[in-house]
Each structure stands twice: as C-alpha cells, then as structure tokens.
Amino acid sequence: MKSSSCRLFRAVARGVAATVIAAASGLASAQPYASSGIEFLSEIPPSGFGTPLATAGSSNWGYTSPSGREYVIQGLNNKTAFVEITNPAAPVVVGTISHPTSIWNEMKVKGTYCYNVNETGGGMQVIDLSNIDAASGTRVSLVRSITSNGLTTAHTVTVNPDSNYVYLNGSNVTGSGGTLVAFSLADPANPVLAGIWTGGPYVHDSQVVTYTSGPYAGREIAYASCGGAGLYVVDVTDKGNMTVLASRTYAGLQYCHQAWLSEDRQFLYMNDELDGPAQGVPSGLTRVFNVADPANPTLVSAFSSAVPGAIDHNLYIRGTRQFQSNYTSGLRVFDMSANAQSPTEIAWIDTYPESDAAIYQGVWNNYPYFPSGTIAISDINRGMIVVRVNLDQLTIAPVGPVPTRVDPNTPAPLSVLITSSNTPVDPSSVRILASVAGGPFVPGAMQDAGAGVFTGALPPTPCGSTVRWFIEARSQANRTFTLPLGAPTSLFEAESYANRVPLFSYDMETAAGWTAGAPGDTATAGQWERGDPEPTIAQPGDDHTDAPGINCWITGRRAGAGAGTFDVDGGTTTLLSPVMNLASGSALTRISYWRWYSNNAGGSPNQDVFTIGLSSDGGTTWTTTETVGPGGPGNAGGWIYHEFAPLDFVPMLTTQMRLRFVADDAGAGSLVEAAIDDVLVYRRDCGTLACNYDFNQDENVDLTDAQQMAQVFVGLITPGPTWLDGDLNSDENADLTDAQLLAAYVVTGVCGI
Hints:
- By secondary structure, this protein is mainly beta.
- It is built from 2 helices and 50 strands.
- Helix 1 packs antiparallel against helix 2.
- About 50% of the residues are buried.
- The model is unreliable at about 1-30 (pLDDT under 50).
C-alpha cells in the first residue's frame, strides 16, 4: 500500500485508537462521543423527528420564547423541526414544517417569526412561533411562502437583529444573480422585496450589523462571503443603492464560505470551504481580518484547530468564545480573550468518529446563543445534538493499545492515565468493571501507580468467550467519568483466544478464484474489477494491503475525467468469492475483510447501500451479514475493518461457503464507489494446552475425532499408536463423556463444554 489515512471504526469502542477523553455524567447518562471540555446532553437522529422520515440534517438555529423556554430549529432534508430543549437532557419535538426535499435547509429568526429557505423550491417560508409555548394544539404554523419576484430557492438567509430586514444569499430572485437581496419586515408575517445589490457577485452567506458608534454609526453594513470572489463589505443602509465599501481576496482563495464578527467588531473570522493542502494550508484554516475600519479590512493572521484536516464550515462568536462547526472533526471551541488574532482551542466534541478527513460529513452548524449556555449542534449524519461547555473534566486515556484479544484463562493487565482540568480524581474510585461471557459486571480496583497512571487487570476468561468492560473514575467533586464514553451503554470488548489460524487469505494481488459479475446485475458503469485504484473524491487512491501490494477489487478503478465517470451507475454490480470449504469450522471461525464504501457525494447523496452476503450452498441462497448505508457510519470512504462469525448467520458451516459483495446505484445523481481488500477467514485457536482435542493426531479437530473416540470406547476399532488416551476431562476415565465433550467442541469451538 502506498499510503493510508483511514481510521478504524469499532462501534464498541469509538475513538480508542487515540487518546479518549471521557465526558462527565450529569443530566444525561450516556456520553457517546469523544470530547474535551464539552458535556453531551441529548440527541435526536434525523429519523427521530416524525414521518415522513428524514435522512440527513442540515443547518440549525435557535429561539428563546418570551417566557424563557428554549427551542432548537433543526433543519432536515425534508422538513424543519422545532424542538424544546428547556430541559436539554429531554428534548421534545413540538412541531415540524415540511419543505421540498433538499439537503440545504437554512433558517434565521426575527421576533416571533422564523424565515426558512432551501435549494430546491417553495420560496421563503414564514413560520409563526408565537404559540410555541402552548400546552396543546398547533404550536408552530406556516403563515405563507414568499414566492414573489421569481423567488423559489435560496442558499442561506441572514437577519440583522437591529433592523427590520431579512436578507437572502444565493437566491434566484429575478435579476439578482444570487447576490444579496433585502426583504422588508415592516410586516414580519409578509416580507416584501426592498432591494438588490445590483452588480454584486454571488453571495454564499453574510452577516449584517448596524453600527451604533464611530464613523458608521447608524449604517447597516453587510460582510458578504462571496465564494471564489472573496470577501465583500457592503453598505446596505439604502436598499435601493447598496454600495461596496471594500473587497478582499487572499492567497489560497478557493471559496470564501462564511464569516462572523467579534462582538467588539474589531475582527472578522472567515472560513474558506475548499482550500487545503493543495493551496499549502490546512483544510480547517480560519483567517482573521482586522475590520476596525470596515472600508479597509486587513488580513492579520490565521489559525486552525487541533484537527486541521477537517473542512471548516460555519462559525459563530459569543462573548470571547468562538464556536466552529468543522464537519468531520465536530464542534471546536476557541477562547479569544488572551489573543483575538490567535485564539486557543479549549473544548471540542467529535460527533463523526469514523473519520477526520476533508469530506462533507458531520457537523454542519451550531447555535451557541441560548441564555442557559446550552449549545445545539446540527450534524448531517446524526441530526440534533445538544451539549454545553464544561471545562471541569477528568481525562481518561489508555496507556498503550486497548486489547481486542486476551489470552485464555489469564488476567490481562491494563493501565490508564487520568488527568484533570480542574478537580482532581479520587484515587480510591478508579476501577475496572468487566463482564465475562455475558455475566454481570464485576468491579476490580485499579492501583495508583503515581503520575496519574492507574493499573489493573481484566479477569481470566474461558477460551472462546467475550469480555466486555469499561473503566470508571470519580473526581473529588463526586462527578463520575468513564472510558469509553457512554459506558455502560458503550463498552470495550475483547475476545479470548490464543492466536489466529488462517484458513483462507486473499490479498487480491491475484484473482485467486474471485469473480466479478452475477446474473441479474444491471449496472451500466462502475462494475467490479481488480487493480490499482486511481483516486477520486469517492474512491481510494490505493489498496489496503501493505507494500508491495497494490491491488484490490473496486467498482471501476480508473478516475476518468471526474468522480462520476467510472462510479457505479444504473443498478447493481456483484463481486463473488471462490467457494471455501469450512466444514471443519466451529463457533471460533471468523470471516474478516477491509471495505471501502462511499455514497455521500453527488446531487442525491446517502441514497444507496452496499450489501454483503454469505452462502452455505455455493451461492444458491444468500443471507445478508452487513448492510452499509444509505446514511450513517461507513458511507464516506476510508478503509474500514469488519469481521463476523459465520455461524451467527447460517446454521452450519459446509464445504460450499461463499461471500458476495453487491454495490447498488438505485438512486439518482449519487456517486457510488466500493472496494474490498485483505479478506481473511481464520480460526481463533485456544492453544494446545488449553484444548488438546485432536484425538487421532491428524492435525484436525473435527467430527472424525469424536466418532473414532466413541468407536474406540465401545470396542469397534483399535486406537492408533499416537492417538490420545481419551481422558479429555481429566477425570481419570476415558469414556463416552469425553467423546461428548469432543463433539461439543467441534460444534461450538469452546473448550470444556
């Protein structure tokens, strides 16, 4: 493999390949995402906002009613949801307003009205929030949709809290060309076109403020992020004659996406959505302009988060804190009090643990302006997430790799490092809680080894069993923290066996019996082929195998003129393994592979699935073992490891076992790419001392051993000179009980049953 930057995702232990920071338990019992200085409170996935089900989140905003109750306005691909979070641990959906299907749904609030737009159609929705506190009845209502002057779509919407105007950015208002368009809110229930920035470039987003002092006192000024045209500062006081005060480009300009002012209006913080290493900068670079004189913005510095590879999207400022929505690296919080030109990152939460890559997944937006300090995050994949900044935390980090395998019948040592951002840990509270083979969680103390390190051990485990575990610690303020996050809902787990015994191994450097295509395939492009892949935004530029390996199976290995040239189009394409003889397998047999799947790009992303199947009759019938997509984890590229026990899906292992991988382009306008590499079928071996059941010493433990043992015991045959004596249970009697023990091992793979 030439290079690889994927992250191995395991649902039972998110983010444990690196330092894991446990969030404190408080109002919510589960802390499902890696974080530092941020406390998770609750979440609602895209599908949790009622019917028709949504499949993706987009933007969000917030509303605080006159009574002080707090509401998230959550954008979704088919509607806008209104959710009360006055108790942030128990969100309640109080209403939804449908809109034409669009992955872009943006909104802002002025007074008791929400102004809502999307990129598909329907104009600007005016939604009445005045009844949102009601105990019953309709709590939010669509007043009207503004479709005058040709308006059907807009990319974003802006409200100046100090004026009675709402601004559309990137709209199709007649004659606007997507530039800034102002609507009067003299009647807030019925916005009326007030003016267009004539001759201006396409505006992607904007912030509009009214100055109250200095040379611009009483003037309404727009800071417009204009994509490839850069930053524009526009005096929009006179809606019939909006005038440019200044415009700026900068080195590495790709797409000036969004910007926000510091509260003293001395600095403007701007994100460019498309710049990155190709321009010699991190993908998550924030540029800082001095705008003390709005007519002379000056680029003075730039900074990035601790995860600079993720794309920066939308940022907002409250007081001296800056809240950045940075797609795959999540919400990042910066303190600007010491140095406004070089803020310090003080907190983060990563709601997309699958990857930190520069892809359009994860956090789209955040709203940090609730009086309570609650923060609403909008996540494309996971919907609405409610959090708050809490800097008093314990950090629990594994010392060394987290074990996924333990030796049978042997304690497995563990060490963690615990540090505190404020209140120290109570050393006597640190413990491991472990469950063996589905049993109860049993606590085990961890010893203070000094310098923040605590040591302990997992209990001995029978071969073939699973141990699930987590670590718990309390601060001296009596607040509980866990590793992994969300325990005991989220757990580490390890399997008990001595080693892997490969049965079949395929690195895909040769065909080795694998075949592409099956009856019923309908794909017109992107059919499976074996080779060295060429990179696109949807497919890898390399296989998974370490060098000198170069090949994998992939759905159209060439890049072509664009990402859509050789991706899967028009239906299904199938990859089939050779037939494998696993008749001597057991419950300890596993099938593993590395897969790549991407369906999150194109005009209609997150619509298709990648289906993996298993057959025990050579391919006549199939059982689905894994489905990736249409949304959620694993659909945004990256080499991801998966393994399963075949006996979880078929009643018995046979001489006719086979795998099937089906990539499907069933939706319109999506980019679909799949790849498979490094397939391994193996047996988890318990070791000869743990389970020496090879009665006839032919180096295979199978039903022949059990049959011959029974025949010896009843006198039908004479044992061979090297055969075992048959006393497998060490009770000093070789009898049918031992034969039954051996037969049980052949079926289950577990010693001693």
